[in-house]
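Here is an idea for our session: we take a single protein and study its fold together. Start from the sequence, derive the backbone structure tokens from it, and show both lines together. Once you have written the record down, we can walk along the chain together:
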Amino acid sequence: MVTDLLKGIAAFITAAISSLGYFGVFLMMAIESAAIPLPSEIIMPFSGYLAYRGDFTLHGAAFWGAAGCVLGSWAAYAAAAWGGRPFVERYGRYVLVSRRDLDLAERLFQRYGSPIIFFSRLLPVVRTFISLPAGLARMPLGRFSVYTFLGSYPFCYALAYLGYTLGEHWHTLESSFRKFDLLIGALLAGAAVWWIRRHLTSGGPSPGEAC
């Protein structure tokens, strides 16, 4: 059943992109970045395959993929900014965002907002829900959009390039990436917790400085 579902999703994505061209890439990546589970591991490699065939260019596919990421991220950002923390706590579990994640993320955005948006967009798993804590922190929308695009473009380009390189065998990438998503997510979460705690605890006065 799971295999049939994945095949159906892949067929939907490839049909949409084949029919709509670059707008299909834009639309599919917008949906993915709104925390709706459409795999970028299918969207962008298939776009790269179309570049291999001469229907797209790699830069065109990456540009429209990154633009779609911005649009989808606006939707997630707005849901968090307007719905507030109760909304994200209620529905965040569906995209693997826990209450503890939100606590850490809000502190992170208060001090290191912009770079986190950029670097998170380069990574699988986290990139799909990073807009939620950004919305809760009410990061300036213009800055959020710029960093989202700048981080999403190389991610989209890399996946498209892999699809371009593999040509007719582009579809083998999706299953390969999925094997590593959970591992990457776990390692990333552990590194983030360590990094945030290290910076937050080092930010206070030392015992010798207190008076």
Observations:
- DSSP finds eight helices and no strands in the chain.
- The helical segments are 2-20, 22-33, 40-53, 58-91, 99-120, 131-136, 141-166, 172-202.
